[in-house]
User: Fold these one by one.
Assistant:
Number 1:
Amino acid sequence: MQAKKRYLILFSTGACLILLFCLGGIQVPLSRRGPGRPHDRRLSGYGPGARWRHLSGYLQPFSSWEQDRSDDLTEHISPRQKRDANSGLYTGKRCRMESCFDFSLCERNGFKVYVYPQQKGEKLSESYQNILSSIEGSRFYTSDPGQACLFVLSLDTLDRDQLSPQYVHNLKAKIQNLPLWNGGKNHIIFNLYSGTWPDYTEDLGFDIGLAMLAKASISTENFRPDFDVSIPLFSKDHPRTGGEKGYLKYNTIPPYRKYMLVFKGKRYLTGIGSDTRNALYHIHNSEDVVLLTTCKHGKDWQKHKDARCDKDNAEYDKYDYREMLYNSTFCLVPRGRRLGSFRFLEALQAACVPVMLSNGWELPFSEIIDWNRAAVIGDERLLLQIPSTVRSIHQDKILSLRQQTQLLWEAYFNSVEKIVLTTLEIIQDRVLLHTSRSNLMWNSLPGGLFTLPQYSTSLRDFPFYYAKLGIKPPSKFTAIIHVVTPLVSQSQPVMKLLVAVAKSQYCAQVIVLWNCEKPLPAKHRWPATSVPVTVIEGESKVISSRFLPYNTIPTDAVFSLDEDTVLSTTEVDFAFTVWQSFPDRIVGYPARSHFWDSNKERWGYTSKWTNDYSMVLTGAAIYHKYYHYLYTTYLPASLKIMVDQMSNCEDILMNFLVSLVTKLPPIKVTQKKQYKETMMGQSSRASRWADPDHFAQRQTCMNKFANWFGTMPLIHSQMRLDPVLFKDQVSILRKKYRDIERL
Amino acid sequence: MYTSGKYSSRGPALIPRMKTKHRIYYITLFSVVLLGLIATGMFQFWPHSIESTADWTLDKRSVHDAPLIRLPVSSPIPERGDLSCRMHTCFDVYRCGYNPKNRIKVYIYPLQRFVDELGVPISSTGLSREYNDLLSAISDSDFYTDDVTRACLFIPSIDVLNQNSLRIRETAQALAMLPRWDKGMNHLLFNMLPGGPPDYNTALDVPRDRALLAGGGFSTWTYRQGYDVSIPVYSPLSADVDLPERQPGPRRYFILSSQTAIHREYRAELERLKEENGEALLLLDKCSNLSQGAASARKRCYKGQVYDYPQILQESSFCVVLRGARLGQAALSDVLQAGCVPVILADSYILPFSEVLDWKRASVVIPEEKLSEMYTILKSIPHRQVEEMQRQARWFWEAYFSSMKAIGLTTLQIINDRIYPYAARTYEQWNNPPVVKWSSVNSPLFLPLIPPRAPGFTAVVLTYDRVESLFRVITEISKVPSLAKLLVVWNNQNKSPPEGEKKFKCPECTAIDGLSLDQTHMVERSECINKFASVFGTMPLKVVEHRADPVLYKDDFPEKLKSFPNIGSL
């Protein structure tokens, strides 16, 4: 027994020694053998596996000044010749804006888009019709090809799958016959499907020449950066305008949902793209990772059926796609036959963070959208890591990804119009290079379509980025008083108003907009004020001119006023301090509301005292100057003309616009309801408010606007902002805004 | 190994003396030991273990100590480089694997001196100072590994920063000889001056198979988006000259051109602009009376007047960076360092690190053809934006241009972001200068949502032992229709919370009610605020003068018709 113990100890020591050897003692034999093995030396180079160390001693710089100069001074080819050479050299698959696009067409008239007239007998799919009408309804449209910078065919190129019933034959000949085709220069071709079974190549079946492609499911290999535009695949039911909202109604914390990762879709047993979906079952766990595929599609699926099909099909039928979509944190978007799939937009709308599994897909609008903010870009090769990858994503990140899906969905994807406008804006940004949007404008609220760089390229000049840039909203405003009646007496409301506004400590300038038929009164007739007063004549005296982005407005904040508005200096001050906290919204006094009139099946307008409101009229409201620009350039001429003809509704339209941009209601300040002396209609003057038709018109306007916007952007609010001690039972002397209480 | 061998040789002789049961036991143990030995042996013959040893040689090394490798003429040459390469086609992700830190591992080949059969080196400069700095910076970073088997990315120690000093064919052969070359897969080459006369290709001409290229001077036709990395051309002045940051604001000159090798067509164009706009423009050239050399690199002249370069760049709002024979210009780095807004005229140029940097916030890009309109275009930029760009330009230089280390690590971070996109650095992290990072507010709930009432709210009531007032609160709050749940946090270890509906009478309650008026309490809270502010480094609280009331609050209106009639009676 003693011996046994001894041996045990001996062997254990032996084993331990060996173990020690394995772990750390390798260098002993190695150092002995190293120099004797020249082959190893070649393999490992200088000193076997030595850590890289900074080398001492004198080393030459990588370039010398003389050499650089002599390089650049070699009389290299003239830059102009080089440019010309490029345009001949880089065509077809190597097209870029520099080589295949004629910028000079855009110089004279700006970025205008021409749509070819529809030819007789030429059938257009619903989707393509939607694309064309979106362009025709946009501010870029021109009916004159001589003014155009970009051309859009009226031949349906969306479906280039030869087996599809939508396929247009003889496209090549039809295009070659177009008089303005010009080898495809400055043309853009929209396409959703290309190629067909079995390989689904990205060939369109006709020569696109120098035309740009706005194509779905485009691969990085075929995508010509800075030339083509990758668009999302959308169905024929995708709404033309308006578009559905995202499904996220409120944020939950922690952000996890019932499922972690889901997918439900077809499985392709053979052919291109089948590998990815065929492998999904490896990570399916039927608990929180539910990835379902079905073999049941196509006519002869039974023929290719594999061993898993029956089991998969049975599992597939157990789950409801919608239920999964809404209750999952992540949604897998694996490639189908083509790289893009409908799953992508569905997941985006459902606030289910897309997990991309489609190697080589140039993601939609990749030129401007930072997809890492809204999606997880997976790698098909690393499928098995996907569950651990998504599980490793921190809660905060999920919360942010999820919100970003909604931001992007509503900014760029929820209607055909948005998709088309985004495409056009991307191209416009390339054409007007130095007035283009920065990445931040595209990827944060309210999105690139509402952030027009022609207004300014500086983020500071917009109402949306103060917090992001860590800067304070401006401390001064400009008052614009809209005058339509002649000056007759010094006691006219407008005079009182002017004095009261000018007295505000935040007022930088008063602008009187003279929209009266009578000639401008003499300068001395305006009251003397401490701030400068400018009188400008309205352009053709139309009501929309009150929203023109006048250069004479020196501040970012605009206090818009009607001539008969009654406001005290205190009220002006208070409204402005509130606005500083909400610089992207309309802040003001006269609140109104809209409602859905189910009897008449239309929107109604009310000025009654209600518990909520959705508009603050611009007769006494403060907002950012940028909205003047947006009103003037973003809105279509048809709406502005309607407003001008009626001399009414401009304030409603402004509220529509601001709510559309911010997705927030305006802000009413203080108790004050009546803001006009003439509200009750005893006035002898031809006030537009006294007109009985006035109210009916406003109803009509609301419905017209809602129709054009494709949605009702107005949002109700039940909140009004009062000074902190408002009507509190403390001494009036402690209150800063005493006047507001007395009114 | 030898000691253990001794034991193993003695073992078998002892076995016969034991019982069978024990014998089996020892035989098993023995075979385990033997197996272990064999495994150890195998381990040592495996090539990776040789490469993975820790450094054990020479601390003071110089280039001349590096082993000399002679390249046979027939040595294979890699393929030219595939323009269609992308991360998913030409990059082996399996080498990078899943790792909890989401960080790639980078291996640097040990230094070798390559010569051809005649003994002529493949490069006229050998390892340059800059490449040495770059490799050292990487080896000191978290990316570095000396274990070649764990590496995801390989960096040759063959310096290809300047194509001019290379023998192209031989360099390519040397690359192909690297032990892990494997068609260039996962190899990263750094090149700043590509091409050579007369065509000046915009990417390195050395055939390199599938290797990734970090290149300074890519054009849109040679840059493989999402695969290559566009890097700046390092300016040696970055290290030599210390330009203190200037506050953004107006400068003496509006536009300055300081490059010395500008094509005469463009110089003529600039002269014309100068004629039209006079003093606002300063057109500098080399000084004709100075001898060539390092000193002349630091001087510029205009009509006999000598200016210090790059200091003069700080005197202008905008600085022109025109293409030369190459698209990438070291002048860009100098201009950024000076906090001057670069006006880049180099058609088709892929700006440095454009994958992550938002150049629109730091520069103005104008097509070469529009050089004559430059003045008008720049004049249309608002002052505020110019100032922002000046600040941004300087920040870009500091963070991404200022040293070979900055350039190298940024390149690796970009590749890292591609491999672990879900852990990638954000736009804000890349682009916001520290002052913005500190002061900006990025709300985690940034989406404007107006939640439905249905889910209601949860009331959380914190209580110590004021049971009476707790019950009062509970009674009131449970009347609220949208209350979904009520949570009482009992914050008193000495007492257990009251159970169920039991009512308490609490004598101390009235005494404690005056708590918030207590003077010391207020002092304490003020101290808290000061403490918090100092920890935050800033006072995040904002003062507003408004409060929210229901729309019809205090209105002369039937209370019955108000949504919230009881507000204010608390």
Number 2:
Amino acid sequence: SAPASQKKKTSATVHCFPRQEIMKWNGWGYSDSKFLFNKKGQAEFTGKRYRLSGMILPSLQDWFENTFGASVKQHKSPPSLNAGALPPANLNEAFLQDLTATGIPFSHEADDRVFRAHGHCLHEIFALREGRGFQRVPDMVTWPNCHNDVVKIVELACKHNVCVIPYGGGTSVTGALECPPEEMRCIVSLDTSQMNRILWIDEKNLVARIEAGIIGQDLERLLNEGGYCTGHEPDSMEFSSLGGWVATRASGMKKNVYGNIEDLVVHIKVVTPRGVMEKSCQGPRMSTGPDVHHFILGSEGTLGVVTEVTMKIRPIPEYRKYGSVVFPNFEAGVACLREVAKQRCAPASIRLMDNEQFQFGHALKPQVSSIFTSFVEGLKKFYITKFKGFDPHQLCVATLLFEGDRERVLQHEKQVYDIAAKFGGLAAGEDNGQRGYILTFVIAYLRDLGLDYYVVAESFETSVPWDRVLDLCRNVKERIIRECKERGVQFQPLTSCRVTQTYDAGACVYFYFAFNYRGLADPVHTYEQVEHAARDEILANGGSLSHHHGVGKLRKEWMKESISDVGLGMLRSVKEYVDPDNIFGNRNLL
Amino acid sequence: MASTTLYSQRDPMLKKRDDFEDILEERRNSSDLKYAVRCYAPVLYKGLTPCKANMLKSMVLQSDHLRYVINQVSQESGEAPDIIHEEASVILEEMAHRLKISTVRFFAFTLTKAFKTLFQHICVNEEGIHRLQQAIQEHPVVLLPSHRSYMDFLLMSYILYTYDLALPVIAAGMDFMGMKFIGEMLRMSGAFFIRRSFGGDKLYWAVFSEYVKTMLRNGFAPIEFFLEGTRSRTCKSLTPKIGLLNIVMEPFFKGEVFDVHLVPISISYERILEESLYARELLGVPKPKESTSGLLKARRILSENYGSIHVYFGQPVSIRSLAQDKVNRCKYNLVPRHIPRKPTKETQSFVTDTAYRIVRLQEDSMVLKPWVLMASILLQNLEGLELSLLTEQTLWLRGLAQSCGAFLDWPDHTPSAKVVSSSLALHRGLVCVSGGRVSLVLGEPQGLVTPEEALFNRAVSVLSCASYRNQILHVFIRPAILAVAIHNAASSKKDEVFNCFSFLCKMFSDEFILCPGDTVQDFEEACYLLVKSGSVQTLQQNIVVTDRGQSTLSFLNGLLESFLQGYQLFSTLVLGNLNMFSDKCPVEGTI
């Protein structure tokens, strides 16, 4: 049993040792925060953590019932964790003995193991909620406290031929954390959460040395205390870790100013079965052959554990302003974003939601407190739809976030709104913009609400050249609708997309899709078939396999087609050299 | 919803086909003028970007594709891009349609008058119309009718107007442009004109393909063209041309549209207006140039009875479903989509395959009249035969044709003698009955004409009659080739018969619709049909003709005899006179 006495609490973090105390074990996010329909049938968001927390959302029920043909009367509550159903831990005694000697804490409690057996793919959450669990879960969990602990664990794992699966924030949506069912060795989940310190800050070069287990929001908060930030804000930043970002090539909402993870990283230290790999200096750019960092960026835990990272930091911007623009239709919006990218004047964040997402956003509007606000809202709606002639079933919204010094932000803002005007865009206020970004954080909670009422939902993403954005969005949505119909989904699914990042040569597109699964024998299987077809469609329309989620096990089958035989061979040969015994045996990617 | 199944029906007897409605019936009982001016509000494609015909032109001229080609041509020729652009604009002007509803109404009025005189019935399968109506809303639609007569495309637009469906834009040969007034009328009823050959002309190809693709992408209107490229003079389907099919598929391959639906349409004429014209053309009398005065002269045909027309709108075929696992669309990811590229081998063979399948679907739903059966028998009895024998054999052939899946329009509840005699009456120009004996009309009595003229007249009759027989060839072609193979193979071993079959298929690949690469399937189908009709048995890898199969096989052999003779004659000629044939290619498939 777990030596409970060895468990130390770290004060700087929101995550105490057993995370399941404050986080859901079978859904997204904090246990205290969730959507529910109260006794009056009104939707509310519980807890105190978010701007939406504690609010009533009067339109959500109608939207929910009309969009999915669902009923809030048909509630389906998930069972609680059944530890008895768990496969018994397959422990390697010799390894255990050596590990105990190092003093590094570990556990093989059922709840610790289950918590780290999955990410947040629909099939994973669904399995938990149906009480079905997983075929294979980690046999034990260990919590290294620093780089040297990791070195020791990896050495022991090699010595005793134990499989190690690194675990950061657990927000994977590619099946990357799932244990391969065919793995016969003892599987150790290496939880990096205790390696969560900022080791030093170098203000002369504006970089910080950070332990890779730190969670995004903690990193930002700690840096903010000193007047800095990384500016790296993936939508999962409340729960995802620095090491995870590196391992999946993460992308942050504000990459236009700060860059994606590969642009932010200056130095990486990684523990592999071959030993530790790191560069000898922290020069800002090097011409020393192919960049070895790029073997690690996106390696998805197949080569080793990232323990420490030197990352660029920036002073906190003096001024920040949200904004939004309404376009008569999605085509006009995309054309505008393309122009903004062309002129290289994209704000820190610019996102274009399609009409479905716009309507969904409306459904999440909290109860208006005063008559006056609702009057103004009504006027705005009137102005846009009646006066400007926008069709409420066509129009779409771009949300904007500007950062910098005040004067420049205002100047920048004007430039962007001027471009938008050329494409028929109307400025629609700061509130709408801000609401769009708040949604980003709560939207993940909505899937759990859907599951409570027989609705399955998932999101996926891609990147695509500009000239194909519209065609790809249309064809993928249509494909989903068609596949659902052919597979007996009774009610037309919700399909929605947003252009969520802009680049010089293309954009990142994010899709949501959801459907009511009543009447389906195996909803997860149906759902997976549809998602598979949607990915085929993306690839056929010039989209990439993934922009930032990664490949995991979910998209492995397309890797060869995506990077060619030779490309795959290159990756394989690296894996073979670095980890010949497949100690890092999560079987992602290759 | 489009069917994903292709030509895979194992038992052709089980083919389900829709019923027909006569659209002339209503016309005979109500005002033509009212019909022509009635409210016309067709359903449109859901993704339609509304635009006028003129806007369409500027979209084409400003497209990235055309701009790219203009620059390319300019660089190659040294001509300024402006001049090339001007050229492109002239080409487009010459090509483009100017669809006007008023012209369509004019045609609706005059055609009604003409149709009522010429034809007894114009029958349309209404279920097909409903399917088409659905398809038009969902996806860009390409209408692919069979092509036997000039009437075809007027008839198509007429029917679509009648059913309140979106009027198509039609790819027509440049020949019509020669007809001054009529050419423009056709243009205003939706025809656009393309040159017969423009092989090397990059600019022309670019304008043309961009024009078609722009209409398709915007859902401007259904696009209609003839896969066979030209009217079949023999009533036998022609080997499909794949150029235009390639163009309409490209927007799907490149992801510009979600799907494109192809609708095979079979137009069967009981009697073709151009009947004797075709026979003469085949014998080398030059085709009269299309001209307005020629058309006026042709008015005399108005005094004749041309029986009925059947138009069968087939199940829309989804290109997306067809292309699944056959075409890897990722291939189009690595070059900007506006840069023209030669289709890959994979794509090309897919397009060819699809073209053949569509032609087979057209053939499949061709309605065959009893006369077609009679003509087939008469041609194997050129010296004539007793009326009673003809009736008997026609009935026998009817059974055989039905078991092979023919779409026969044999009148119910009518004595067979009556069916035969009324067919003979309709075709009295071709066949005569005297003293209970039926024979082909062989022109003027001997003595009044020179022997050459007599021979020529005889040939006209035989060819006209053959054009009816040809209508049923698609039903029998596979069993017939098998019959010939059995007859000619060195032994009855299945392998040897197959080798012979395969040789014949190759030889006849331009003569009949035999999809390249389908030989094994064709062979199996042929075996299946002959075994089912009890004509052959397969015993331990041997194919043996049964006693009762003798007559069937001899009929099938007879069906191909004239073709085989023709090929034989021709090859003897070529081998004997190699020097006579220089670059000029001899006439294709003339029998």
